[in-house]
Specification:
The complex is a heterodimer of chains A (about 400) and B (about 375). In chain A, about 50% of the residues lie in helices and about 5% in strands. With about 400 residues, chain A is of the alpha+beta class. The chains are: A alpha+beta (about 400), B mainly alpha (about 375). At the A-B interface, helix 8, helix 10, strand 1, strand 2 and helix 16 of A face helix 1, helix 2, helix 12 and helix 17 of B.
Chain lengths: ~400, ~375
């Protein structure tokens, strides 16, 4: 809020890249947006305190997801993860002990919760790691150590270990160990014998990513979320070392009643979570280049991608020709993200059409000259420059006009 | 078993704490953790000491000379003095067009570049100020918006009309006052710019981090911004990019003084020197080209060098002022613009990709 991100992200841009099927999500005026962001933070705090938990969980999920859906160029995997966890919290009895609510409503206190309430969170975390690991099973990551080779060389200012980043072998070690970590950590956390080591690994891995890369809250979210793998017995033992006793809960006979629709519903949810991230396998041969099925699939930190776009607008009646550079209409973040994402280029073309054809009477064609560089490769033409993008009827058809990358 | 876990945990926690402590303390750390860091520091020091400082010195010197000549012209309003003033204005413009590239960091945040040269100048407002009744002095000029003063404002007064606008015109005296006050203001701004840079020397040369605040990233962003401005405003708009294709020479920067081509030449020279670190006084010439070689991108480094030469070739085609070339040889101007566009792609896309430069923030999630 104090960095001015609310204006920068929501209210200053004249145009927003909305999500497919969510084009109706629009920002309010600046003061209302401040209110919503503030309220969202407050609801998150209420969830943490277990205060008016259920309503807070619903409100946090709605407000946070609303904020996320306004602008596609701000998409981050951990925002998506926060929305998913917020959604799950709505259905979980996470406030039925050690919460403020229990102080107000003593009858809601529970001694035990059904296993599915923990399982669903564990599966959600496992999905992030497993798909994050699968996304690394690519030649760039494994055999070229990209993008880590680029990123580590850019982080040689890191104290103590920075000197190691001069060497390519360091990037290979980080790439392979990162991949192995992602693919194994859920299982190591799940297994009681390996759990202590696994959690230490979680802390080490995420602190290292925090120190090395600019990835915001993600490391802290994952470190905190992974605590859910620790069982109640282990918590008792662990806290006992520090002289803290949780004590027996009165009314321990009370049990949580699972609604008969809950398990089928959660089954569907898990099915979705474990299949949706794989949709790119049906949609494209190279998800990093085309980005078809890239979002909501835990492709975390797998590419360094930069682009350039220049649009030519031709009035087919008058033969007037305009050249448009996106920086004239978009924020720096919007321009950067759009330059290598076909669906956003398609959206921007529609925006240009609205600007240059306000009364709808002009017969325009819009072409793009786009260059993209991926993981240290030389830049090359991205979208077919001969295609009139106004003739591309659907955003999904846009992916058919990407020029293939041959050295992947 | 548990004991081993605790020992392992202790080592890990200590290491992390130390790393975090070091990370928090890295501001002001003068040690170089690697060869790359040493190169980065050497490059920034080279830019500051061998380009920014000499250019600032030259700018202060030339603007003072310009101020003196305006005062001479005010006392002796002759054709010879007007010509001398015009020539000196061109010298100032040429120095500024090299220095303008370094509008970054705290210097950029001060918006002093606008005060020095904002174009297009607001001719109606300047005429209004001259025709008005306000006392024209340093305070009055300081109170004006940037589009009615600075280098562009002086160009309007010096090159739009002849000597009679300063002698026989009804507003001649006030026009002379205005011109003199602009010269004085510009000279003052040059000194302020120099002071700003001196105050920011350490911040510039020692901020080696890779984030958006890192000096090397700021320099890359400054290169990108300037090349985009050349493409969009200095060539694109006059070519008719924004009006449907109608050539508009009056949209060239400094078209009144017919120095538009020279301005682009100065930008190109400054950009190439910055890329190569090849400043006149430099014994140790560390530039982006060396940096790219250091990280194993020799071919790419050579490609950017070749693109600079291509831009120069396209600019050398022009024998006449750019305003004339726009009318008579627009295809060659388009070629020049396209050459700058290719240079932009190499720096904004390829170089940023190879160096992992952060052009925006919070985008490392790879999504």
């Amino acid at each position: 809020m104090w960095k001015g991100w609310i204006q920068d992200s929501y209210t200053s841009p004249k145009f927003h890249f909305t999500y497919q099927y969510f084009d109706w999500v629009r920002p309010f005026d600046t003061s209302t947006m401040y209110l919503i962001v503030g309220a969202s933070a407050l609801f998150a705090l209420f969830i943490a305190l277990g205060f008016l938990y259920r309503i807070s969980a619903v409100m946090f999920f709605l407000s946070f997801t609303y904020l996320e859906l306004i602008e596609k160029s701000w998409y981050l995997n951990h925002y998506y993860f926060a929305s998913l966890v917020a959604f799950l919290l709505i259905w979980l009895p996470a406030h039925r002990n050690y919460s403020l609510d229990v102080g107000f409503f003593k009858k809601i206190r529970l001694a035990v919760v059904p296993y599915w309430t923990l399982l669903i969170l564990k599966l959600q975390i496992a999905a992030v790691y497993i798909f994050g690991g699968l996304a690394k099973l690519k030649s760039d990551w494994l055999f070229e150590a990209q993008p880590l080779r680029i990123w580590l060389k850019a982080r040689t200012d890191t104290p103590i270990i920075g000197g190691l980043f001069d060497y390519d072998v360091t990037a290979y070690i980080f790439s392979w160990s990162g991949m192995v970590y992602d693919l194994t950590i859920p299982f190591l956390l799940w297994n009681a014998r390996t759990r202590p080591f696994a959690y230490i690994l979680v802390v080490v891995f995420h602190v290292l990513t925090y120190v090395l890369f600019n990835i915001g809250m993600f490391p802290w979210i994952m470190i905190a979320a992974s605590l859910v793998f620790i069982t109640s017995d282990e918590w008792e033992k662990l806290l006992g070392k520090f002289g803290i006793r949780l004590g027996k809960i009165s009314g321990s006979a009370k049990k949580f009643k699972t609604h008969h629709m809950t398990i089928p519903f959660l089954g569907l949810y898990v099915f979705f979570q474990f299949t949706f991230p794989l949709r790119h396998l049906l949609l494209t041969d190279n998800v990093l280049w085309t980005e078809n099925g890239f979002r909501f699939a835990w492709h975390v930190m797998v590419m360094e991608k930069n682009g350039f776009t220049e649009f030519t607008i031709i009035d087919n009646e008058t033969q007037e020709k305009f050249t448009v550079y996106p920086s004239q209409y978009l924020t720096v973040v919007q321009e950067k993200q759009m330059s290598f994402q076909p669906d956003m280029i398609w959206q921007f073309v529609r925006h240009l059409d609205r600007l240059y054809n306000k009364d709808g009477t002009r017969n325009l064609s819009i072409f793009v000259n786009s260059k993209v560089s991926l993981n240290g490769r030389e830049s090359r033409t991205y979208i077919d420059p001969k295609v009139d993008l106004l003739k591309v009827a659907s955003v999904d058809n846009m992916y058919g006009h990407i020029i293939d990358i041959d050295d992947f | 078993m548990m004991k081993r876990i605790y020992i392992f945990l202790g080592i890990i926690v200590s290491t992390i704490s130390f790393l975090l402590f070091q990370a928090c303390e890295k501001e002001g750390n003068s040690e170089f953790s690697s060869e790359v860091e040493y190169y980065k520091y050497s490059q920034l020091k080279n830019i500051y000491e061998n380009e920014i400082v000499p250019l600032n010195n030259a700018f202060v010197f030339e603007t003072e000379k310009l101020e003196t000549l305006t005062k001479v012209f005010q006392l002796e309003t002759t054709e010879a003095n007007l010509n001398a003033l015009r020539e000196q204005w061109k010298v100032v413009q040429m120095v500024w067009k090299q220095l303008e590239l370094y509008d970054l960091g705290e210097v950029g945040n001060s918006f002093i570049a606008f005060e020095i040269n904002r174009w297009p100048t607001d001719t109606e407002r300047i005429d209004g100020n001259i025709e008005g009744t306000d006392n024209i002095d340093a305070d009055f000029i300081a109170s004006l918006g940037s589009s009615s003063k600075g280098i562009s404002g002086m160009e309007y007064l010096l090159f739009s009309y002849g000597l009679d606008s300063f002698t026989t015109d009804p507003d001649a005296v006030r026009r002379l006052d205005y011109l003199t006050a602009l010269g004085e203001n510009l000279s003052l701004k040059a000194l302020q710019l120099q002071e700003l840079w001196e105050a920011n020397e350490i911040a510039f040369t020692k901020t080696l981090e890779n984030g958006i605040g890192g000096s090397q990233n700021q320099v890359i962003n400054a290169m990108v911004t300037l090349i985009e401005e050349i493409i969009i405003s200095k060539l694109g708009n006059p070519l008719g990019d924004s009006n449907g294709g109608t050539i508009a020479p009056e949209r060239l920067e400094a078209y009144r003084s017919l120095t538009s081509k020279e301005i682009i030449q100065q930008h190109l020279t400054a950009l190439e020197r910055l890329y190569k670190g090849d400043f006149l006084q430099t014994p140790f010439r560390v530039g982006f080209d060396d940096f790219l070689v250091l990280i194993g991108s020799e071919d790419f480094s050579a490609k950017i060098n070749a693109q600079f030469k291509d831009c120069q070739r396209k600019l050398d085609v022009f024998q006449n002022p750019l305003a004339t070339e726009l009318e008579t040889n627009p295809d060659a101007v388009v070629d020049l613009k396209n050459s700058f566009r290719d240079l932009l792609v190499l720096i904004k896309v390829d170089m940023a990709n190879v160096l992992g430069s952060t052009i925006t923030f919070n985008d490392n999630d790879g999504d």
